[in-house]
Write a structure and sequence with these properties.
With 450 residues, the chain is α+β, with helices and mostly antiparallel strands. The protein has helices spanning 52-55, 78-95, 99-105, 110-118, 137-148, 152-171, 174-185, 300-336, 348-377, 382-407, 418-427, 436-449; strands at 16-17, 20-21, 191-194, 210-214, 217-228, 235-241, 250-256, 262-264, 278-289, 293-294, 338-339, 342-343. The strands form four sheets. The protein has a four-stranded mixed β-sheet.
Length: 450
Amino acid sequence: MACRLLLPRSPRAGGRYRGQDYSSQPAPHRQPLRSGPAMAWPGPPRLAARLLLPLLRCPAAGRRGIAACIDPSAGLTEEQKEFQKVAFDFAAKEMAPHMAEWDEKEIFPVETMRKAAQLGFGGIYVKPDVGGSGLSRLDTSIIFEALSTGCTSTTAYISIHNMCVWMIDTFGNEEQRRRFCPSLCSMEKFASYCLTEPGSGSDAASLLTSAQRKGDSYILNGSKAFISGGGDTDVYVVMCRTGGPGPKGISCLVLEKGTPGLSFGKKEKKVGWNSQPTRAVIFEDCVVPVSNRLGAEGQGFSIAMKGLNGGRINIASCSLGAAHASVLLAQEHLTVRKQFGEPLANNQYLQFRLAEMATRLVAARLMVRNAARALQEGREDAAVLCSMAKLFATDECFAICNQALQMHGGYGYLKDYAVQQFVRDIRVHQILEGTNEVMRMIVARSLLQG
Protein backbone atom coordinates (compact mmCIF):
# COMPACT_ATOMS: atom_id res chain seq x y z
CA MET A 1 0.00 0.00 0.00
CA ALA A 2 1.23 3.49 -0.84
CA CYS A 3 1.06 4.79 2.72
CA ARG A 4 3.77 2.35 3.78
CA LEU A 5 6.13 4.81 2.20
CA LEU A 6 5.78 6.76 5.43
CA LEU A 7 6.04 3.91 7.94
CA PRO A 8 9.19 2.97 9.84
CA ARG A 9 10.78 -0.11 8.37
CA SER A 10 10.86 -1.76 11.75
CA PRO A 11 9.17 0.09 14.61
CA ARG A 12 10.38 -2.58 17.03
CA ALA A 13 13.97 -2.27 15.91
CA GLY A 14 14.69 1.23 17.13
CA GLY A 15 12.20 2.98 14.86
CA ARG A 16 14.59 3.42 11.97
CA TYR A 17 13.07 4.78 8.79
CA ARG A 18 14.98 5.04 5.52
CA GLY A 19 18.27 5.20 7.37
CA GLN A 20 17.06 7.84 9.85
CA ASP A 21 16.51 7.04 13.52
CA TYR A 22 13.16 8.43 14.63
CA SER A 23 12.68 6.16 17.61
CA SER A 24 10.67 7.17 20.65
CA GLN A 25 13.86 7.55 22.72
CA PRO A 26 14.51 11.11 23.93
CA ALA A 27 17.04 12.99 21.84
CA PRO A 28 20.42 13.56 23.53
CA HIS A 29 19.96 17.34 23.59
CA ARG A 30 16.76 17.18 25.63
CA GLN A 31 16.95 18.58 29.12
CA PRO A 32 14.58 17.82 32.01
CA LEU A 33 11.72 20.14 32.79
CA ARG A 34 12.36 22.64 35.54
CA SER A 35 9.86 24.43 37.67
CA GLY A 36 9.59 28.15 38.03
CA PRO A 37 10.05 30.97 35.54
CA ALA A 38 13.25 29.52 34.06
CA MET A 39 11.26 27.55 31.47
CA ALA A 40 12.83 29.49 28.64
CA TRP A 41 14.56 28.45 25.47
CA PRO A 42 18.28 28.38 26.33
CA GLY A 43 20.26 30.89 24.41
CA PRO A 44 22.03 32.16 22.53
CA PRO A 45 21.05 31.17 19.86
CA ARG A 46 18.20 29.46 21.73
CA LEU A 47 18.29 26.34 19.58
CA ALA A 48 16.50 23.95 21.93
CA ALA A 49 13.17 24.52 23.61
CA ARG A 50 13.79 22.97 26.99
CA LEU A 51 10.11 22.81 27.73
CA LEU A 52 8.77 22.26 24.25
CA LEU A 53 10.87 19.33 23.12
CA PRO A 54 9.87 16.76 25.76
CA LEU A 55 6.20 17.54 25.17
CA LEU A 56 6.19 17.21 21.40
CA ARG A 57 6.30 13.47 21.23
CA CYS A 58 3.79 11.14 19.63
CA PRO A 59 0.93 10.72 22.13
CA ALA A 60 0.92 6.99 21.41
CA ALA A 61 4.32 6.81 23.09
CA GLY A 62 2.64 7.55 26.40
CA ARG A 63 4.54 10.72 27.19
CA ARG A 64 3.63 12.65 30.28
CA GLY A 65 1.47 15.69 29.74
CA ILE A 66 -0.84 14.50 26.96
CA ALA A 67 -4.30 13.66 28.23
CA ALA A 68 -6.39 11.10 26.37
CA CYS A 69 -9.12 13.68 25.76
CA ILE A 70 -6.87 15.72 23.44
CA ASP A 71 -4.87 12.81 22.00
CA PRO A 72 -4.60 13.47 18.23
CA SER A 73 -4.16 9.75 17.59
CA ALA A 74 -7.64 8.95 18.92
CA GLY A 75 -9.78 7.22 16.31
CA LEU A 76 -6.94 6.63 13.86
CA THR A 77 -6.02 3.33 12.27
CA GLU A 78 -2.82 1.60 13.35
CA GLU A 79 -1.23 2.60 10.06
CA GLN A 80 -2.19 6.25 10.57
CA LYS A 81 -0.80 6.15 14.10
CA GLU A 82 2.50 4.87 12.74
CA PHE A 83 3.07 7.66 10.22
CA GLN A 84 1.71 10.20 12.71
CA LYS A 85 4.43 9.05 15.10
CA VAL A 86 7.06 9.43 12.38
CA ALA A 87 5.85 13.01 11.82
CA PHE A 88 5.76 13.86 15.55
CA ASP A 89 9.25 12.49 16.05
CA PHE A 90 10.59 14.36 13.02
CA ALA A 91 9.01 17.57 14.35
CA ALA A 92 10.58 17.07 17.77
CA LYS A 93 14.06 16.14 16.58
CA GLU A 94 14.54 18.01 13.31
CA MET A 95 12.32 21.09 13.61
CA ALA A 96 11.60 22.19 17.19
CA PRO A 97 15.28 22.56 18.18
CA HIS A 98 15.77 25.07 15.34
CA MET A 99 12.38 26.77 15.30
CA ALA A 100 13.53 29.89 17.19
CA GLU A 101 16.71 30.31 15.17
CA TRP A 102 14.88 29.91 11.84
CA ASP A 103 12.47 32.60 12.97
CA GLU A 104 15.06 35.01 14.34
CA LYS A 105 17.50 34.70 11.43
CA GLU A 106 14.83 34.20 8.74
CA ILE A 107 16.35 30.91 7.60
CA PHE A 108 14.58 28.92 4.87
CA PRO A 109 15.45 25.38 6.12
CA VAL A 110 15.98 23.68 2.77
CA GLU A 111 17.98 20.72 4.06
CA THR A 112 15.50 19.97 6.84
CA MET A 113 12.65 19.99 4.33
CA ARG A 114 14.60 17.62 2.10
CA LYS A 115 14.92 15.29 5.08
CA ALA A 116 11.14 15.51 5.44
CA ALA A 117 10.82 14.63 1.76
CA GLN A 118 12.84 11.47 2.40
CA LEU A 119 9.97 10.42 4.66
CA GLY A 120 7.46 11.04 1.89
CA PHE A 121 6.35 14.49 3.02
CA GLY A 122 7.22 16.30 -0.23
CA GLY A 123 4.26 14.89 -2.16
CA ILE A 124 1.97 13.38 0.43
CA TYR A 125 -1.20 13.20 -1.67
CA VAL A 126 0.58 12.92 -5.01
CA LYS A 127 0.42 9.65 -6.97
CA PRO A 128 3.26 7.18 -6.32
CA ASP A 129 4.21 6.75 -9.99
CA VAL A 130 5.83 10.22 -9.97
CA GLY A 131 7.36 9.96 -6.50
CA GLY A 132 4.39 10.82 -4.30
CA SER A 133 3.18 8.95 -1.24
CA GLY A 134 -0.37 8.49 -2.52
CA LEU A 135 -2.00 9.16 0.85
CA SER A 136 -5.47 10.52 1.53
CA ARG A 137 -6.48 14.05 2.53
CA LEU A 138 -7.13 12.82 6.07
CA ASP A 139 -3.68 11.24 6.24
CA THR A 140 -2.23 14.53 5.00
CA SER A 141 -4.04 16.50 7.69
CA ILE A 142 -2.72 14.15 10.37
CA ILE A 143 0.85 14.61 9.14
CA PHE A 144 0.71 18.41 8.86
CA GLU A 145 -0.80 18.72 12.34
CA ALA A 146 2.05 16.67 13.77
CA LEU A 147 4.80 18.49 11.86
CA SER A 148 3.39 21.87 12.83
CA THR A 149 4.09 21.20 16.51
CA GLY A 150 7.78 21.47 15.64
CA CYS A 151 7.62 24.57 13.44
CA THR A 152 4.35 25.94 12.12
CA SER A 153 5.94 28.31 9.63
CA THR A 154 8.04 25.64 7.95
CA THR A 155 5.18 23.14 7.91
CA ALA A 156 2.90 25.73 6.33
CA TYR A 157 5.38 26.16 3.47
CA ILE A 158 5.60 22.38 3.04
CA SER A 159 1.80 22.33 2.81
CA ILE A 160 1.82 24.97 0.05
CA HIS A 161 4.52 23.05 -1.81
CA ASN A 162 2.38 19.90 -1.56
CA MET A 163 -0.60 21.77 -2.99
CA CYS A 164 1.44 22.89 -6.01
CA VAL A 165 2.75 19.40 -6.69
CA TRP A 166 -0.78 17.98 -6.41
CA MET A 167 -2.04 20.52 -8.95
CA ILE A 168 0.61 19.47 -11.47
CA ASP A 169 -0.01 15.79 -10.75
CA THR A 170 -3.79 16.14 -11.06
CA PHE A 171 -4.21 18.59 -13.93
CA GLY A 172 -0.98 18.11 -15.85
CA ASN A 173 -0.52 15.70 -18.73
CA GLU A 174 1.85 12.74 -18.49
CA GLU A 175 4.81 14.68 -19.84
CA GLN A 176 4.26 17.49 -17.33
CA ARG A 177 3.77 15.09 -14.42
CA ARG A 178 6.99 13.23 -15.15
CA ARG A 179 8.95 16.40 -15.87
CA PHE A 180 8.04 18.30 -12.71
CA CYS A 181 6.70 15.98 -9.99
CA PRO A 182 9.66 13.68 -9.17
CA SER A 183 12.06 16.53 -8.34
CA LEU A 184 9.31 18.35 -6.41
CA CYS A 185 8.31 15.27 -4.40
CA SER A 186 11.95 14.78 -3.39
CA MET A 187 12.20 18.52 -2.68
CA GLU A 188 15.25 18.69 -4.88
CA LYS A 189 13.19 21.57 -6.21
CA PHE A 190 10.62 23.71 -4.40
CA ALA A 191 7.35 25.20 -5.65
CA SER A 192 5.34 28.39 -5.10
CA TYR A 193 1.65 29.09 -5.69
CA CYS A 194 1.03 32.38 -7.52
CA LEU A 195 -2.55 33.63 -7.38
CA THR A 196 -2.75 36.79 -5.26
CA GLU A 197 -1.94 40.13 -6.90
CA PRO A 198 -1.42 43.63 -5.50
CA GLY A 199 -4.90 44.61 -6.68
CA SER A 200 -6.74 41.31 -6.31
CA GLY A 201 -6.56 39.37 -3.09
CA SER A 202 -9.95 38.07 -2.04
CA ASP A 203 -11.34 38.95 -5.48
CA ALA A 204 -9.03 36.49 -7.24
CA ALA A 205 -11.21 36.28 -10.36
CA SER A 206 -10.29 39.88 -11.22
CA LEU A 207 -6.56 39.17 -11.55
CA LEU A 208 -4.70 41.17 -14.21
CA THR A 209 -1.54 39.17 -14.92
CA SER A 210 -1.82 38.45 -18.65
CA ALA A 211 -0.52 35.74 -20.96
CA GLN A 212 -0.76 36.58 -24.65
CA ARG A 213 -0.56 33.61 -27.01
CA LYS A 214 2.20 33.91 -29.61
CA GLY A 215 2.72 30.75 -31.61
CA ASP A 216 3.74 27.91 -29.31
CA SER A 217 4.36 30.24 -26.37
CA TYR A 218 2.66 32.71 -24.05
CA ILE A 219 4.10 36.14 -23.28
CA LEU A 220 3.51 36.60 -19.56
CA ASN A 221 3.28 40.05 -17.94
CA GLY A 222 2.16 41.18 -14.51
CA SER A 223 2.99 40.59 -10.87
CA LYS A 224 1.96 38.49 -7.89
CA ALA A 225 2.04 39.51 -4.23
CA PHE A 226 2.78 37.71 -0.95
CA ILE A 227 4.23 34.61 -2.62
CA SER A 228 5.56 32.05 -0.15
CA GLY A 229 9.03 30.95 -1.19
CA GLY A 230 9.18 33.64 -3.87
CA GLY A 231 12.74 34.07 -5.12
CA ASP A 232 14.04 30.98 -3.32
CA THR A 233 11.87 28.38 -5.03
CA ASP A 234 12.31 26.77 -8.43
CA VAL A 235 8.82 26.22 -9.87
CA TYR A 236 5.96 28.75 -9.98
CA VAL A 237 2.36 27.69 -10.56
CA VAL A 238 0.90 30.91 -12.00
CA MET A 239 -2.72 31.92 -12.56
CA CYS A 240 -2.95 34.38 -15.46
CA ARG A 241 -5.47 35.85 -17.86
CA THR A 242 -5.46 34.33 -21.34
CA GLY A 243 -9.03 35.35 -22.19
CA GLY A 244 -11.73 37.83 -21.27
CA PRO A 245 -12.70 39.15 -17.83
CA GLY A 246 -13.91 36.92 -15.03
CA PRO A 247 -12.93 33.42 -13.93
CA LYS A 248 -13.41 31.79 -17.35
CA GLY A 249 -10.61 33.88 -18.83
CA ILE A 250 -7.99 32.51 -16.43
CA SER A 251 -5.45 29.79 -17.24
CA CYS A 252 -2.68 28.09 -15.26
CA LEU A 253 0.97 28.12 -16.36
CA VAL A 254 4.01 26.50 -14.79
CA LEU A 255 7.07 28.74 -14.87
CA GLU A 256 10.62 27.79 -13.90
CA LYS A 257 13.15 29.96 -12.11
CA GLY A 258 15.70 31.39 -14.50
CA THR A 259 13.13 32.21 -17.17
CA PRO A 260 14.17 35.54 -18.77
CA GLY A 261 11.94 38.35 -17.49
CA LEU A 262 11.16 36.62 -14.18
CA SER A 263 12.21 38.72 -11.18
CA PHE A 264 11.33 39.19 -7.54
CA GLY A 265 10.60 42.00 -5.13
CA LYS A 266 12.32 42.59 -1.82
CA LYS A 267 12.01 40.03 0.92
CA GLU A 268 9.05 41.08 3.06
CA LYS A 269 9.46 41.66 6.81
CA LYS A 270 6.65 39.77 8.51
CA VAL A 271 5.20 39.31 11.98
CA GLY A 272 5.52 35.54 11.67
CA TRP A 273 6.20 32.85 9.08
CA ASN A 274 9.83 33.95 9.09
CA SER A 275 11.27 30.56 8.13
CA GLN A 276 9.78 30.98 4.67
CA PRO A 277 10.62 33.97 2.46
CA THR A 278 7.80 36.06 1.02
CA ARG A 279 8.29 38.24 -2.04
CA ALA A 280 6.46 39.72 -4.99
CA VAL A 281 6.94 37.74 -8.20
CA ILE A 282 7.23 39.89 -11.34
CA PHE A 283 6.79 38.83 -14.96
CA GLU A 284 8.13 41.05 -17.76
CA ASP A 285 7.67 39.53 -21.21
CA CYS A 286 8.37 36.05 -19.90
CA VAL A 287 8.18 33.48 -22.70
CA VAL A 288 6.38 30.39 -21.39
CA PRO A 289 5.84 27.37 -23.67
CA VAL A 290 2.22 26.38 -24.27
CA SER A 291 3.37 22.92 -23.17
CA ASN A 292 3.69 24.38 -19.64
CA ARG A 293 -0.04 25.09 -19.38
CA LEU A 294 -1.99 22.89 -16.95
CA GLY A 295 -5.32 21.87 -18.45
CA ALA A 296 -7.06 23.82 -21.17
CA GLU A 297 -7.29 27.58 -21.56
CA GLY A 298 -9.93 28.97 -19.23
CA GLN A 299 -9.57 26.18 -16.64
CA GLY A 300 -7.09 28.04 -14.46
CA PHE A 301 -9.54 29.47 -11.95
CA SER A 302 -11.16 26.08 -11.42
CA ILE A 303 -7.72 24.52 -10.93
CA ALA A 304 -6.78 27.25 -8.45
CA MET A 305 -9.95 26.80 -6.40
CA LYS A 306 -9.63 23.02 -6.31
CA GLY A 307 -6.09 23.44 -5.11
CA LEU A 308 -7.25 25.84 -2.42
CA ASN A 309 -9.86 23.43 -1.07
CA GLY A 310 -7.03 21.14 -0.07
CA GLY A 311 -4.89 24.11 0.90
CA ARG A 312 -7.54 25.21 3.39
CA ILE A 313 -7.51 21.80 5.04
CA ASN A 314 -3.72 21.86 5.09
CA ILE A 315 -3.43 25.28 6.71
CA ALA A 316 -6.17 24.42 9.20
CA SER A 317 -4.16 21.32 10.09
CA CYS A 318 -1.07 23.46 10.67
CA SER A 319 -3.19 25.57 13.01
CA LEU A 320 -4.19 22.45 14.92
CA GLY A 321 -0.55 21.57 15.49
CA ALA A 322 0.27 25.01 16.86
CA ALA A 323 -2.78 24.91 19.13
CA HIS A 324 -1.99 21.40 20.33
CA ALA A 325 1.55 22.44 21.27
CA SER A 326 0.23 25.59 22.97
CA VAL A 327 -2.24 23.63 25.10
CA LEU A 328 0.60 21.38 26.27
CA LEU A 329 2.80 24.39 27.03
CA ALA A 330 -0.01 26.06 28.99
CA GLN A 331 -0.76 22.85 30.86
CA GLU A 332 2.86 22.46 31.89
CA HIS A 333 3.21 26.13 32.84
CA LEU A 334 0.15 26.03 35.09
CA THR A 335 1.54 22.95 36.79
CA VAL A 336 5.03 24.25 37.58
CA ARG A 337 4.50 28.01 37.95
CA LYS A 338 3.64 29.17 41.47
CA GLN A 339 1.95 32.37 42.57
CA PHE A 340 0.65 33.25 46.02
CA GLY A 341 2.25 30.12 47.39
CA GLU A 342 0.57 27.55 45.16
CA PRO A 343 0.64 26.31 41.56
CA LEU A 344 -1.40 28.25 39.02
CA ALA A 345 -3.12 24.94 38.26
CA ASN A 346 -5.03 25.32 41.53
CA ASN A 347 -6.74 28.46 40.24
CA GLN A 348 -10.24 27.52 39.13
CA TYR A 349 -10.48 30.33 36.59
CA LEU A 350 -7.34 29.08 34.83
CA GLN A 351 -8.62 25.52 35.03
CA PHE A 352 -11.77 26.60 33.21
CA ARG A 353 -9.80 28.44 30.54
CA LEU A 354 -7.57 25.43 29.96
CA ALA A 355 -10.65 23.23 29.67
CA GLU A 356 -12.12 25.59 27.07
CA MET A 357 -8.87 25.53 25.09
CA ALA A 358 -8.80 21.74 25.06
CA THR A 359 -12.46 21.53 24.06
CA ARG A 360 -12.02 23.98 21.19
CA LEU A 361 -8.94 22.12 20.00
CA VAL A 362 -10.75 18.80 19.80
CA ALA A 363 -13.80 20.37 18.14
CA ALA A 364 -11.60 22.03 15.51
CA ARG A 365 -9.71 18.79 14.88
CA LEU A 366 -12.94 16.85 14.35
CA MET A 367 -14.22 19.49 11.92
CA VAL A 368 -10.99 19.51 9.91
CA ARG A 369 -10.85 15.74 9.67
CA ASN A 370 -14.49 15.57 8.62
CA ALA A 371 -13.82 18.06 5.81
CA ALA A 372 -10.71 16.12 4.77
CA ARG A 373 -12.78 12.96 4.41
CA ALA A 374 -15.41 14.82 2.40
CA LEU A 375 -12.76 16.18 0.04
CA GLN A 376 -11.21 12.76 -0.42
CA GLU A 377 -14.61 11.23 -1.19
CA GLY A 378 -15.47 13.99 -3.67
CA ARG A 379 -18.65 14.90 -1.84
CA GLU A 380 -20.79 17.71 -3.21
CA ASP A 381 -20.49 19.69 0.02
CA ALA A 382 -16.71 19.27 0.27
CA ALA A 383 -15.79 22.84 -0.74
CA VAL A 384 -18.16 24.34 1.83
CA LEU A 385 -16.97 21.96 4.54
CA CYS A 386 -13.36 22.91 3.76
CA SER A 387 -14.29 26.59 4.14
CA MET A 388 -16.11 25.91 7.40
CA ALA A 389 -13.18 23.91 8.75
CA LYS A 390 -10.63 26.54 7.74
CA LEU A 391 -12.75 29.30 9.29
CA PHE A 392 -13.40 27.51 12.56
CA ALA A 393 -9.99 25.92 13.05
CA THR A 394 -7.88 28.98 12.27
CA ASP A 395 -10.04 31.26 14.43
CA GLU A 396 -10.23 28.86 17.36
CA CYS A 397 -6.60 27.78 17.20
CA PHE A 398 -5.39 31.37 17.18
CA ALA A 399 -7.56 32.02 20.25
CA ILE A 400 -6.05 28.94 21.91
CA CYS A 401 -2.47 30.03 21.22
CA ASN A 402 -3.21 33.57 22.33
CA GLN A 403 -4.79 32.34 25.57
CA ALA A 404 -1.77 30.11 26.20
CA LEU A 405 0.45 33.18 25.86
CA GLN A 406 -1.77 35.04 28.33
CA MET A 407 -1.46 32.19 30.82
CA HIS A 408 2.31 32.58 30.68
CA GLY A 409 2.00 36.21 31.76
CA GLY A 410 4.99 38.40 30.94
CA TYR A 411 7.09 35.37 30.13
CA GLY A 412 4.78 34.50 27.25
CA TYR A 413 5.68 37.79 25.57
CA LEU A 414 9.39 36.97 25.54
CA LYS A 415 10.94 35.40 22.48
CA ASP A 416 12.68 32.90 24.75
CA TYR A 417 9.29 31.18 25.04
CA ALA A 418 7.88 29.03 22.26
CA VAL A 419 4.28 30.07 22.79
CA GLN A 420 4.77 33.58 21.36
CA GLN A 421 6.10 32.14 18.10
CA PHE A 422 3.03 29.95 17.69
CA VAL A 423 0.88 33.06 18.16
CA ARG A 424 2.83 35.02 15.53
CA ASP A 425 3.02 32.17 13.04
CA ILE A 426 -0.63 31.21 13.26
CA ARG A 427 -2.11 34.70 12.93
CA VAL A 428 -1.74 34.78 9.15
CA HIS A 429 -3.74 31.56 8.81
CA GLN A 430 -6.89 33.65 9.22
CA ILE A 431 -5.86 35.63 6.13
CA LEU A 432 -4.29 33.30 3.57
CA GLU A 433 -5.87 30.56 1.42
CA GLY A 434 -8.91 32.85 1.36
CA THR A 435 -9.56 35.20 4.28
CA ASN A 436 -11.94 34.03 6.95
CA GLU A 437 -14.36 36.70 5.78
CA VAL A 438 -14.38 35.00 2.38
CA MET A 439 -14.91 31.65 4.14
CA ARG A 440 -18.01 33.13 5.77
CA MET A 441 -19.24 34.32 2.37
CA ILE A 442 -18.84 30.83 0.91
CA VAL A 443 -20.73 29.22 3.78
CA ALA A 444 -23.50 31.83 3.73
CA ARG A 445 -23.90 31.53 -0.04
CA SER A 446 -24.28 27.77 0.30
CA LEU A 447 -26.95 28.17 2.96
CA LEU A 448 -28.93 30.86 1.18
CA GLN A 449 -28.71 29.43 -2.32
CA GLY A 450 -28.98 25.77 -1.36
